[in-house]
Design goal:
Blueprint lengths: L3 H6 L13 H10 L8 E3 L15 E10 L2 E10 L2 E9 L11 E2 L11 E8 L4 E7 L3 E6 L12 E2 L6 H4 L8 E7 L3 E7 L4 E8 L11 E5 L8 E9 L2 E9 L4 E8 L7 E2 L2 E2 L2 E2 L6 E3 L9 E5 L15 E7 L14 E7 L5
Pfam families: Glyco_hydro_62 (PF03664)
InterPro entries: GH62_arabinosidase, Glyco_hydro_beta-prop_sf
Catalytic activity: Hydrolysis of terminal non-reducing alpha-L-arabinofuranoside residues in alpha-L-arabinosides
Length: 348
C-alpha cells in the first residue's frame, strides 16, 4: 500500500487532498525508462561451433534459447553449401556449451529439407512447445516436452503459400525469419523480406496457430540494409515491448532497437543507429580477442518460457552468431559460431 513515507522515499511531493498514485504507477514509470540511451556489452569468445561428426556442417547459426529448470535449451540452424537444417542441444553452464552433443532435428518428424531460423516458446493455453521456423513458408512443429528432440511433429504452415502482400514486394529479397509473440488477445507473427520491410500478421490467442491474417507492413526503410532481417520482439514490462532488427553496417551486422506500448506499434526509436546500436561491434568489448565484427541473428535469454516472451531489462544476455571477418567463402559456407553477450545496465 502506498503511504506518505513510501512517497517520500520515491521522491514524490505530497499535496493535501490530491489522490495518491498507485505503487504500480511508479513501477511502470521505472520500467519505461530502464533502458539506457547507450548500451555497453561484454562478450565471450566463440562458444559453440560445428562438430567433426560426419555432417560436414560449416556454421551454426540463428540460435533460439530457453532456460528451464537450470538447463539451457538451444535450437539453431546448421549451414553448409548444400543447404540448411536444424539442430538441438542443451547444457547447464555456458563454459560447457561447446561440449554439448548435437541432436539433428532431421532425425525427428521435422524431417529433411530446408529448415532454418528457429524460435522456441511454450504456448501455455495448449500446454505445448512450439518451434517456429522457415521452410520456404512460415512453418511450425509442436512437442509436449522440450527436452525430447525426437518428439517434434511434422511441419505445418501458418499460410497456404507466400502471402500476397509479401509476394508483391519480394523481388530481389527472401521471405525469412519468422517470429511469434502473443499478448492477452492476439498472437502476432513477424517476418522480413531482406528488402527493408518488417511484416506483421495476427490471429486470436484462442485460434492460434490458425487464422493468421494477411500481413501488414509493420516498419520499413528505403535502404534495405537498415532493416534487414532477424527481428526479435519481447515484452519487458506490463504493456511495453522491445523490438530488435538486424541490420548491415559498414563493418558487419548489428541490431537497431525500438520500444512500444503495443505489439502492433507504433515503435519509438531506442538505440537505432550504427553509431549507437542496441548491440553491435561498436559497443561490445570482448573478454579475449575480437573474433567477430558481426553481431548477428540470435536471441535474448528470456525470464519466461511462454508465448509472452518476457525479458528483464536489468539482466540481458544475448546469444548471437558471429564469424571470423577474414574468411572469404560463399555465404552458406561461412564458419558461423555462437557467442554470448552480456549487458550491465547502469539504470538498474
Amino acid at each position: 500500500m502506498t503511504n506518505l513515507k513510501h512517497l517520500a522515499l520515491l521522491g514524490a511531493a505530497v499535496v493535501p487532498g490530491l489522490a495518491l498514485p498507485k505503487a504500480a504507477d511508479f513501477l511502470d514509470s521505472r520500467q519505461a525508462s530502464v533502458f539506457p540511451s547507450k548500451f555497453e556489452w561484454t562478450s565471450t569468445d566463440a562458444l559453440v561451433g560445428p562438430k567433426n561428426d560426419g555432417r560436414g556442417i560449416a556454421g551454426i547459426k540463428d540460435p533460439s534459447i530457453i532456460l528451464k529448470d537450470n538447463v539451457y535449451h538451444v535450437f539453431a540452424s546448421t549451414a553448409k553449401d548444400e543447404g540448411y537444417n536444424l539442430v538441438y542441444f542443451n547444457f547447464t553452464n555456458f563454459k560447457d556449451a561447446g561440449k554439448a552433443p548435437f541432436y539433428y532435428l532431421d532425425q525427428s518428424s521435422i524431417g529433411t529439407g530446408y529448415r532454418a531460423a528457429p524460435e522456441v516458446f511454450y504456448f501455455a493455453p495448449q500446454k505445448l512447445w512450439y518451434l517456429v521456423y522457415q521452410n520456404g513458408n512460415a512453418a511450425y512443429s509442436t512437442n509436449p516436452d522440450i527436452s525430447n528432440p525426437k518428439g517434434w511433429t511434422a511441419p505445418k504452415t501458418f499460410y497456404n503459400g507466400t502471402p500476397k502482400t509479401i509476394e508483391d514486394r519480394l523481388t530481389g529479397g527472401y521471405w525469412v525469419d519468422m517470429w511469434v509473440i502473443c499478448d492477452d488477445k492476439n498472437c502476432h507473427l513477424f517476418s522480413s523480406d531482406d528488402n527493408g520491410r518488417l511484416y506483421r500478421s495476427q490471429t486470436p490467442v484462442s485460434q492460434f496457430p490458425n487464422g493468421m491474417s494477411e500481413p501488414v507492413i509493420a516498419m520499413e526503410e528505403k535502404r534495405k540494409e537498415d532493416m534487414f532481417e532477424a527481428s526479435n520482439i519481447y515484452r519487458y514490462a506490463s504493456g511495453k515491448y522491445l523490438l530488435l532488427v538486424e541490420c548491415i553496417g559498414s563493418t558487419g551486422r548489428y541490431f537497431r532497437s525500438w520500444t512500444s506500448t503495443d505489439i502492433a506499434g507504433p515503435w519509438k526509436p531506442l538505440a537505432d543507429k550504427e553509431s549507437n546500436p542496441f548491440l553491435g561491434a561498436s559497443n561490445v568489448k570482448f573478454t579475449g580477442k575480437q573474433w567477430t565484427k558481426s553481431i548477428s541473428h540470435g536471441e535474448l535469454i528470456r525470464t519466461s518460457h511462454d508465448q509472452t516472451l518476457s525479458i528483464d531489462p536489468c539482466k540481458m544476455r544475448y546469444l548471437y552468431q558471429g564469424v571470423d571477418p577474414t574468411v572469404d567463402v560463399s555465404y552458406n559456407s561461412l564458419p558461423w559460431r555462437l557467442g554470448l553477450a552480456e549487458h550491465k545496465n547502469p539504470a538498474c
